[in-house]
Amino acid sequence: MIGIITLYYNNYNIGGLLQAYALQKTLEDNGIESEQLSVWHYKKETVSFRRKLTSKAIRMIKNPAAEIKATKHNREMEWRKNVISADIEKRQKHMRAFMQEIPHSSQIYTPDNIKESLKDYSGYIVGSDQVWNDDYIDKNNMMINMLQFVPDDYPKISYAASIGKNSGFKDWFVEMLGGLKDFDSVSVREKSAADIIKKYTGIDSQVVLDPTLMLTDEDWKALVHKEDNKSDKTPYIFTYFLGQDKANREFAEELSRKTSMKIINFAHAINYFRDEDKEFADEAVMDYSPKDFIDYIAGASVVITDSFHATVFSLIFHRPFYTLTRQSADGIKSMNSRVVDLLNTYGLSDRLIDAQEQVFDGNINDIDFSTFDNMINEQRKKSITFIKDSLLNHKGGNN
C-alpha cells in the first residue's frame, strides 16, 4: 500500500480535492494500491488569551499603524465569513462527502504521530498541489511533506509537487530542499519549480502532469450522476473567480451582452463574502460540490475564470474559455505561474487575458485543441511511467 501525502484532509478547496481524487484514481487504474493519508496540515497552535494579549501589545508598540490595520482587516474578514456562514456550511458538507469517497486513512496524522504510519505503508508519494509552499505549510508540517520521517528503505517519490511561488523562501525551507537528494525520484508540476530545485539542490526534477489531467473527460463525467447533469440547460457562461477583480466580472458581463447568454457564477469561491459577487451574474450558485464544478464546466458554452483548475477542466472538456489574470487587493498581479506554464505548453497563451489592460470586443474566438489532444495522451503515458519506474527502481531495494 502506497501512502499519498497531499493537501487532502479538511481541505475545502475544489482544486485540491479533485487533484487528490485524481492521483489515487490514476494509481488504482494502473494496479497500484494506495490511499490518502489524513494529514492535518493546518492545525493551529493553542495560544492562551494572556499570550495573545501580550503579543498584540508588543506589535502595537513596535508598529501601531500596522497593528491597527491588521486588526481592522481581521475583523472585516471575520464578518465576511459569518455573513455567508450558512451557505458555506452547506458547501463544505458536500466537500466532506466527496472527501469520504476518496480512499484515505482512518488515522489522522500530525508531526507528532506521523511515524506511526510506517507500519501501514510500503512507500510514499508526496503531491500534487502546493505541498511545498512555505507560505501555507509551517516548518513542522513541511517535514512531513518532505518525507523526512521516512527511512531510506522505503520508496520516497514526489509527484507533480508544487512550490507555488518563485521567490521569498524561508531559510529553513531552502535547507529542507536539500533532503530531496534522498528521494528515489522527484517530479514537479511546473517548470518554474524544477528551476528552483535545480538552483538550490542541483537535482534535475521531471515536470509531469497535474493529476487532474491524468484522467479523461469520460473519467470525470462518470463522477456526475445523470439526474444531476447540467449539460442540457440553456446555453450559459460559467464563471469561477478566486480573485476580487471587478474588471474580470465586467469582462464576463460584456460577453453576456454580446451573446445574450446568461452568466452562472460559483459565488464567493474563497469561502468569504465578496462585494464583487454581490450583484454579479444571472444565477449565483452558493451550494455546490466538486462534482458540480466538473459538471458546470462540462456543460458551459464558455468558461471565464482566474482559476488554474477551472482552466484545466476547460481543456479536458474542450470548452471555449478565457483565463483572466488575478490581482491582489493592493493591485499587484498574483496570477500563479502554473497557469502561464499550462497555457504555454499547449500553445494557448492567447487565452490568458489581462482584463485591466486589454479591450474585449465581446466575440468568442475559436480554440484549436489539437495541440492539447496530440500531447496529452503521450504526457499521461510518461507521467504514469515515471511513477511505476520510481517505485520499481527504489534505491533502497524492495520493501
* Element pattern in H and E: EHEHHHEEHEHEHEHEHEEHEHEHEH
The percent range for helix content is 40-55%
Task: Give the tally of β-strands.
Answer: 13
Uncertain parts: 329-334
Which structural class do the helices and strands define? alpha/beta
- The total count of helices amounts to 13
Average pLDDT score: 87
N- to C-terminal separation?
11 Å
Apparent shape: globular
Q: Widest sheet: strand order?
A: 3-2-1-4-5-6-7
Features:
6-stranded parallel sheet; 14% strand; 399 residues; alpha/beta
Question: Could you characterize what this model shows?
Answer:
By secondary structure, the protein is an alpha/beta fold. It is 40% helix and 14% strand. The chain has 13 helices and 13 strands. The protein has a seven-stranded parallel β-sheet with strand order 3-2-1-4-5-6-7. Strand 12 (321-324), helix 12 (337-345) and strand 13 form a beta-alpha-beta unit. The longest helix is centred in the C-terminal third of the chain and has 23 residues, at 370-392. It starts with a strand and ends in a 7-residue tail after the last helix. The model is unreliable at 329-334 (pLDDT under 50).
